Amino acid sequence: MAAAPTTIPTPAVPWRETLPRKGRVGILSLILTESVFFSIFVVAYVFYLGKSLAGPYPKDVLSTPILNTICLLSSSITIVLAIRSLRAGAIGAFTVWWFVTFALGLEFMIGTAMEWHKLIYHDGLTIRTNLFGTTYYSLVGLHALHVTIGLLLILLVGILTMCGYMNERHVERTDVLSWYWHFVDAVWVVVFLTVYVIGR
Amino acid sequence: MAGSIEHEIPLSATDDLQSLPVLGKLHEWVVTVDHKRLGIMYIAGGLVFFLVAGLQAATIRLQLAFPDGNIVSPQVFNRLMTMHGTAMVFMVGMPILTGFFNYLVPLMVGARDLAFPRLNAFGFWLWLFGSLLLYFSYLAGDGLYGAGSAPDVGWFAYAPLTELPFSRGNSTDYWILSILLTSVGSTATAINIVATAFCMRCEGMTLGKMPVLVWLAVVVAFMMIVVLPPLSAAQAMLLLDRFLGAHFFDTQAGGSAILWQHFFWIFGHPEVYVLVIPAFAFASEIIPVFSRKVIFGYSIMVAASCGIGFISMSVWAHHMFAVGMTPAGNSFFAASSMLVGVPTGIKIFNWLGTIWGGKLRFQVPMLFCLAFLFQFLIAGLTGIMLAVAPFDWQTTDTYFVVAHFHYVLVGAIVFMIFAAIYYWFPKATGRMLSEKLGQWHFWLFLIGFHMTFDTMHFSGLRGMPRRIYTYQPGRGLETLNLIESIGALVQGIAVLIFVINVMRSLLAGEEAGNDPWDAWTLEWSTTSPPPEYNFATPPVVRSRRPLWDLKHPDDPDWKYE
Description:
The complex is a heterodimer of chains A (200) and B (561). Chain A is mainly alpha-helical and 200 residues long.
């Protein structure tokens, strides 16, 4: 196309297309407001590090959730692959990658559930035990809540795809949803570093 | 009827309601996603809460009119001042200002509606029911222990007073949940406004040609997006404390009461600017029209507003000088607080520059603007005084502080809300408000305002403490307090005149026509009230004053911009 020899007068870009897409601006604004919300919980976590009056303390009970992290972060890659397939019109590949994303996210939630089960029943750490419990469950729980919302939305799109409603016209919307999912993953990086690396 | 298709279903659905005209109308307003109707509902709802919270303030002034006042009990007084403060910020200021942005931003950028109309309706209903929840606490806030009805912890609800052992019953929970809901609604609206201004502009309206009001709406929306979450997060923590036994602000388990103060004021101070920047926005539209000049320094005006938005997020701890921070902390927050004065001063000079040499028309909207300029200057000056930490230590929690922030909230914001209502009421309803009643409203409100709030500076310097339900005679406070209370009465009469004015105009106001003020922005190019679709054909603009270009084809603005 760039190598076309004749110069065809290109029509001026229609005004509408010079404006940003409202879905993207909307989701970026949502991500901004959510980021601030999370950062307040991160601040509280860091502020109360080492201030618990009684145990258990982070270094006694926390183990680094490697598998969870790998699963959640790779789900960002699979959702990109899904969107790319959708853009190319390959609904089958899209469906596969979409449900792989869902499965990876679900694994993360199962892992978190198992971790919490261990902390509560084995280590006796609840939200009311000490400041560590208070800040840990609220920060990790807030993130898990966002993963859950993301999973429900992904499942909804998945079900609609299975019913045959998905086509290339929905690229934009599905893409916006994937931005939310990337955001949830990025927050996990911060939570992971705060809770399991710096905080331990 | 059998032959018609498609239309049949919606028509027959409304047919049922047409037998009940009132219900049909109500149904229309409840299901609407039209930005103009939602805007009007925001403003009308906000004005109703303004009357309620204003009556609560009047009761406070009645109690304090004489020493050893006995009209309400201390408990009731605490509830009154908490509800007055909370309602005036979240149920009056926020909805009226977002209501105006709701109404005006799409019209001013030449769009049919906001970017996400259904999200807009969602935000409105969250706000309305959140607000009703706060006042519902009067009926249902008792909770298990019969301790109190409405919230009584002050509008900034300092911990650990709000913790379960000290605030039994559910009144504090009502405070938390109500504001949490309205904050989510406000965030939704903010996202909508940002998306509308960036993505829905009509052809030719580049960012540099947006009306100043739209620019400031974007600044305010960004601020809401960034500053509401700290409050919501802190309230979520408080809920966890109260319901699940967490220890965020529980000082007995090592939690910090100061942390709440930080979180609250990270929200609380920018919130002042969230409320006052819309007032700037109204002034920036009204002053040029009534001075018959273009706004002086458009780009500087926009830049200064962005500057205020940024700087105001780094000044919060000047509310906390009395807590005892480090000298470095005190110095930083004193300096940053004074720094806000610079862009604010720029704006005042820009408005003066707009008025300078203009052909002034002293109609009611302009009168409110002029009073705003003067009063906002005073408010800024006492703000600089309070930014000096040692001065703040002396006057913190006195009526001097009360006077300062009421100078901002009433002297600037309420005055500009009235200006905006007088200015855009003809557009929204097709009827003019009476100029004569408006003059009465303005002058009485001005006199009452200065009686009440000028005097408060002096009673504060004489040591009248804030939030106290009574005071003893013989301390030099009687006369001042009495003047303040009489001023409140005068303001009440002025507001009553305003209500009469609105009612009279709605019933039998003079027809306004499309463009009663000979103004220049796009909303005046459509009918009054505008049709549901706003513009029959999407407008195309070439300058910041599209209507000037239309009215003066020989001397259009776009030649000079």
